[in-house]
Design a protein that fits this description.
Helix content: 40-55%
Largest sheet: 5 strands, mixed
CATH superfamily of the largest domain: GTP cyclohydrolase I, C-terminal domain/NADPH-dependent 7-cyano-7-deazaguanine reductase, N-terminal domain
CATH class of the largest domain: Alpha Beta
Oligomer: single chain
Number of helices: 8
Number of domains: 2
Strand order of the largest sheet: 5-2-3-6-7
CATH topology of the largest domain: GTP Cyclohydrolase I, domain 2
Radius of gyration: 20 Å
Distance between the termini: 38 Å
Length: 187
């Protein structure tokens, strides 16, 4: 990202909405916004394959779940934040993934302009392609500021999306077990 270019554009934007970009409270805002963009959109410069560490699964063939993974992203339609939690489950076939890598996958894809549906599928597709597991399930629950602060202004609306591969898609018992296990809020 070209930080100087972003600063200039933000300064212009501040002026366009009717504010004085040179007043004391706004003078350093373009620099702060440019710095925040490096974090908010840092997922573009990461190669997901380089982040992942896989291990021999040692014949483990039961469901592995990481739930309540907090995430923050920005909606590509209004460039407004959306945030919530991701639950990921998979049934390995020979390979397992390092435990910290599941939240890293979420972090990488969420730090891009997104929609929740794509984010859900990207996480599921990545695990399916890189691990070749027997099945993958991903569920995301999120609040969208574009719906809370503008538009319909519904403060308690939560959007839920899911994406399933393999046994999670084709076997109702597997999917039900996953949904039952992630529903327990025992953290």
């Amino acid at each position: 990202m070209d930080q100087a270019k972003i600063e200039n554009l933000i300064k212009q934007l501040i002026g366009e909405i009717g504010e004085d970009p040179n007043r004391e409270g706004l003078r350093k805002t373009p620099g702060r916004v440019a710095a925040s963009f490096a974090k908010l959109y840092g997922g573009y410069d990461k190669d997901i394959k380089e982040l992942l560490t896989t291990f021999d699964g040692e014949s483990y063939d039961e469901m592995i779940i990481c739930k309540c993974i907090d995430f923050y992203s920005n909606c590509e339609h209004h460039i407004q934040p959306f945030f919530g939690q991701v639950s990921i489950g998979y049934i390995p076939d020979k390979k397992i993934i390092g435990i910290s890598k599941l939240p890293r996958i979420v972090e990488t894809f969420s730090r891009r302009l997104q929609n929740q549906e794509r984010l859900t599928m990207q996480i599921a597709n990545t695990l399916h392609e890189l691990l070749s597991p027997k099945g993958v399930g991903v569920v995301i629950e999120a609040k969208h500021l574009c719906m809370l602060s503008r538009g319909v202004e519904k403060q308690n609306a939560i959007m839920t999306t899911s994406s399933y591969r393999g046994l999670f898609k084709n076997n109702a018992k597997t999917r039900s077990e996953f949904l039952r296990l992630i529903a327990k809020k025992d953290h």
